[in-house]
Amino acid sequence: MNRTPLLQRGHISVSDFRCTAGPGAKPFAEQYDCHSISYVRKGSFGCHFRGRFHELVAGSILVGHPGDDYTCTHDHVCGDECLSFFLDPELVQAIGDRADIWRIGSVPPLGELMVLGELAQTAVDGNSDIGLDEVGHLFAGRFVEIVAGRTPKPLKAAMRDRRRAVETALWIDAHSHRPIDLENAAAQAGISPFHFLRLFSDVLGVTPHQYLVRSRLRHAARRLADDDSPITDIAYDVGFGDLSNFVRTFHRAAGASPLRFRQASRGDRKIFQERLALH
Hints:
Elements: E1 2-8, E2 12-19, E3 29-31, E4 35-49, E5 52-57, E6 61-64, E7 69-73, E8 80-87, H1 89-95, H2 99-102, E9 106-107, H3 111-124, H4 132-147, H5 159-174, H6 182-189, H7 193-204, H8 208-226, H9 231-237, H10 243-254, H11 258-265, H12 273-277
Antiparallel strand pairs: 1-2, 2-8, 3-7, 4-5, 4-6, 4-7, 4-8, 6-9
Helix pairs in contact: 3-4, 3-8, 3-10, 5-6, 5-7, 6-7
């Protein structure tokens, strides 16, 4: 595991984690030092935490609570990359310190968090004028808002079935710019659409179509911040067949239109200042 510190502020720090472990690597127990939220931007891994097992893919969030033990595994694919935010107690108290939120273990790929995760990554890459600490505060606050009230479901799927779901999710993410339906994805997994839908949802917490749409949103958010391509071109490039549908879907996830999101990434803080003011 390679860790690269990216930011150190009074209330928040950010690090880039890159793991090259694969199937057969010996897992080992670790302990969280503080509250943390880690955005999985690439790859996949599993995590044992408080008696439950979680499978994480690109777009998922690993949640840490100080003093709790966890063990990460790589049973299906090799490696992962995460952008991790570490929060001090004062910040956690300000945004919400309920134990049920911070001991949820993981959060499935959700559009509202994925677009902010990609905005944070553009800040890391130097392609955004918004500060990484600013995005970190916004990301943490949005996380608390969304996770409050969610109840984690125990993962009971067998290893073989978990592998099918994870590998198919990675395939969907890599091909999300193309038309993909339930039958396509089920064929990739090698099982019937009926069984695949239930399996995918049980393992990853979202349906295959939800993951497809959110992968498209994730790629769109990155493009909006990274380059100056027309929004229409980005919508079609990432897989949306209709511009108005893209604008509605993106606005619902990001809380801002694609244009306003792009402006925010270029330093227009008016768009996010209301949320940032809360923290």
